[in-house]
Amino acid sequence: MNPLSHALSRKGNNFDLVRLLAAVAVVYGHSYLLQAPDGTTDWVRNALGFDGFGAFGVYAFFLMSGILVTASFDRQRSVPRFAALRIARIWPAVAGGSLVSVFILGPLFTTLPLRDYFASGITWANLDNFATIVLKTGWVLPGVFEHNRFGNDICAPLWTLPLEVRCYLIVLVTGMLGLLSSSRGVLIAVALGCAAFVLRIHVPHMQVGLRDFSEMPGGYSFWPEPFFILGMLLYGWREHVDINGLTALALAMVFLVFRDTAGAQPLFYLAFVYGVLWVGTTPMLRRFVPRHDYSYGIYLYGFMVQQCVASLAPELGHNTATLIAAPFILLCAALSWHFVERPVLALCRRRLARPGTPLAAGIATGGPTPN
């Protein structure tokens, strides 16, 4: 038996590796959108007929986040501590990214005179991190990337952050109700999470309606939130979730047998989820776990750097453009982690740690859509 609980009860897991692979998948998936003048398209999407690299990277982020954020609340059992850690994990990197985009990227790439660029209210609106994280307001800078294939958008992955925040609220509310400390309670929490996913509250009139399931995120065949909710369920039943390579292989084979049937997509998602869990827990991959969690920085800065390459050399193929962008993305992610994300997290943990309870020993330290 290799239950999920073993990986959650010690540092011997590969969760940082999963997040890194997910971030790289998102970056590579975006390369098809930003370059590809020869008309090439995502080969994973072509092979499956539905989602591609970027979508599966986001799904993996949300799945891991569902597991680890639920574990975080269950471990903390404190609303203020949980909220402080979530804010410390999401906000500083976004704040740093907005400063970089407004004061470095914008002046370098805008087609407007700098006086007009800095006089525009659109420029300064990008520093409203609350709107970015909560209200799903993306970054758009005047005169920047307006002629790119994917025009104007500075950081497309930002659209997932408000979804992540809503998922955090599901954990917060169900945790306050005491539902996350038992497997049966988690079932109720998951049911409430599904209800929150299905229902939509329209402000300011507070009208409650049903989600329009005919509308999906652009380029996606499913939604990220159910993967987070599934992560909550997996955490609640972690003692009963056995992970082994033979089962992962069997699920992959089942999908291949039925790939031309109506059940192909759900079968693939089942194999995908189990495969992510296997990658996150198998000892044979432990040597590849990175020492530092650059995944969030790669997720945020990847698109920005790729847009810069696309602006300077739109004729490049997507593979060449990705190789050129890669070292700059890694540099930005490393600077974000070492000088923004990790120092803020460390400060937050020191301030919140109770005597005899080293908060820094917690599991959930990273994410993407962060954990």
Question: How would you describe what is shown here?
Answer:
- The chain has 371 residues and is mostly helical.
- It has one domain (4-361).
- It has helices at 4-8, 15-34, 43-48, 53-76, 79-109, 114-119, 121-125, 129-134, 160-176, 183-198, 225-236, 245-257, 264-281, 295-312, 318-352; strands spanning 199-202, 207-210.
- The chain has a two-stranded antiparallel sheet.
- Strand 1 (199-202) and strand 2 (207-210) form a beta hairpin.
- The model is unreliable at 356-370 (pLDDT under 50).
Q: What is the gist of this entry?
A:
The protein has 371 residues and is mostly helical.
User: What is the total number of structural domains?
Assistant: 1
Ranges where pLDDT stays below 50 over 5 or more residues in a row are 356-370
Q: What's the gyration radius in Å?
A: 21 Å
Distance between the termini: 27 Å
Largest sheet: 2 strands, antiparallel
What is the N-to-C succession of helices and strands? Answer: HHHHHHHHHHEEHHHHH
Helical run tally = 15
User: Got a strand count?
Assistant: 2
Gross morphology: globular
Mean pLDDT: 90
What portion of the residues fall into strands of 2 or more residues?
under 5%
| Order of strands, widest sheet | 1-2
Tell me the structural class. Answer: mainly alpha
